[in-house]
Design a protein that fits this description.
Number of domains: 1
Radius of gyration: 19 Å
Largest sheet: none
Strand content: under 5%
Distance between the termini: 25 Å
Helix content: 55-70%
Order of helices and strands: HHH
Shape: elongated
Length: 85
């Protein structure tokens, strides 16, 4: 099985995310609605960028790690490091 690097387009991801969120339209709350939508967009955008950075760092490692050689504490640390996105 070949491993292919995954890359997410942050702009497309963020736009798709806010399109999937149901913002109830209320004319009296337009500014608050815009703030919520902007916050959702930026959160999704930066999450995708963070994922791409972590994916790039992990994908480019030249030597694969044999997890069976790690002690339990080292294995837990490795899993914790991988789950930082």
């Amino acid at each position: 099985m070949t491993k292919e690097k995954i890359s997410i387009n942050p702009e497309k991801f963020a736009l798709q995310f806010i399109a999937s969120v149901n913002f109830d339209f209320d004319e009296t709350e337009l500014e608050n609605m815009a703030k919520k939508e902007l916050a959702a967009y930026l959160s999704a955008y930066f999450l995708a960028e963070k994922f791409n950075t972590i994916e790039s760092k992990n994908f480019d490692k030249s030597q694969s790690l044999d997890l069976s050689d790690l002690c339990f504490d080292a294995l837990l640390k490795h899993v914790a490091d991988l789950n930082k996105y």
